[in-house]
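Quiz preparation item.
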């Protein structure tokens, strides 16, 4: 049994349950004029997360314990966790564009990318593509902050 996989799988299933409860709102409060329920997409992603968590836990139960030289937590892991906490804290204040650009840039920098002009261009392009996807294809408005 690989204990880390079982624990991670159970935590993912628990997180999925918590996230699913956050999507249980009255549909009349959030329906758009063309009767699109914006909670369908997040619920699908949550279901996929729960299924993957269950598969990870089952895989952990079937595998033999493997000794790995890679630590579970490292400075990079803690750095990315800190970036994600700051991202969640500033998301509604400064908006999608600024917070997502900063978070994407910071995560890539922590992971070792050092070509800053290319990194800035990729982060900027990614934010624009995601905004276009949500705004024009999925018709889900993203938070607008004080800057953008």
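Solution:
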């Amino acid at each position: 049994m690989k204990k880390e996989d079982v624990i991670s799988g159970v935590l993912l299933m628990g997180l999925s349950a918590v996230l699913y409860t956050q999507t249980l709102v009255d549909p009349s409060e959030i329906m758009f004029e063309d009767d699109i329920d914006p909670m369908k997409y997040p619920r699908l992603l949550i279901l996929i997360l729960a299924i993957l968590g269950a598969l990870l836990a089952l895989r952990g139960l079937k595998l033999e314990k493997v000794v790995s030289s890679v630590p579970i937590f490292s400075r990079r892991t803690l750095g990315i966790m800190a970036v994600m906490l700051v991202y969640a804290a500033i998301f509604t204040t400064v908006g999608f564009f600024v917070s997502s650009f900063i978070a994407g840039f910071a995560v890539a920098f922590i992971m070792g990318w050092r070509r800053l002009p290319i990194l800035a261009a990729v982060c900027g392009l990614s934010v624009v593509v995601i905004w276009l996807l949500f705004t024009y294809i999925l018709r889900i408005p993203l938070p607008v902050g004080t800057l953008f």
